[in-house]
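If your schedule permits, I should be very grateful for your opinion on a structural question. I have a record of one protein: its chain in single-letter code and its fold written as discrete structure tokens. Kindly check, if you would, that the fold set down in the tokens agrees with what the sequence suggests. I remain grateful for any guidance, and I place the record below:

***
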Amino acid sequence: MLAFESVAGAIRQAAAWGYQRLAISGGEPLLYPWLDEVVALAAGCGMRTALITNGLLVAQKNKLAILRRVDTVAVSIDGLGAAHDRLRQRARAFVDVLRALALLADAGIDFHIICGVNRDNLEDVEDLAALACDRGAAALQLHPVSAAGRARSGMADALLGADDANLLYLTGMLLAAAYQGRMGVHTDLAHRSCVIAQPSLIYAAADSEARHDARPADLLGVLVLEPDGVVNPVSYGFGAPYSMGNLLEQPLESLWAPWLDAGYCKLSRLGRTLLRDLLAGAGAAVFNPSDVLRHASYDLASR
């Protein structure tokens, strides 16, 4: 686990670069000994905070007090009943997460529910939306599980195929309409036509010297600080050739200029390669742009 000083320095620098939101995930963020200090620091830097938790530690001492200071609390639920228990590899995990939702609601803490959707729980999505609304969730986020982290080896057979992704995309649209005014529903998928119309979604910008006059936050929407100190663009687990560097070796401030001259150009070329493929009719109809970029950062790095 990174030391608080390393994390704090990165937060201050990110705020100075124009980043306005800090998302804290895990592992389980409620285990971080410096979580309270990080939330306070981010707020002091003018950043809004979001935190994703499995909910199992919400009842522990002082956790609700910390969560009250977080702008967006998201609780991950990976299916209904036994399906959630199985994915969490823990008996009664679903019962415990429902208890966490009740504790959050009773404490007056607005919460979202995020579901990592795979083939095993795809059919539960509509029932999960009903449960989320009944329990008082402000929003439901449907995120297709991708081949990263634990899913890279343990869930490869359960990842959504093209037809599954199409079904989730349409289901998400219908649920968003059905719950309008009561609960937001967002699906982390985009139609290829939207990506072609907005190539910035895959960083397919033309390489330009104007990048040197822009703030980092205006060029790169997401910075990811990984547990080993690596700073990546776009998403967790992005290809090593695109990494900005490591906080354990250099402060964040010193990583930007070298990366802007090399890594940003490489990322833009990667995005333009993907855009050409989309324009040629290749690829799926709907996809998560960040996931497609991450896969390409391995598969197309030499193209």
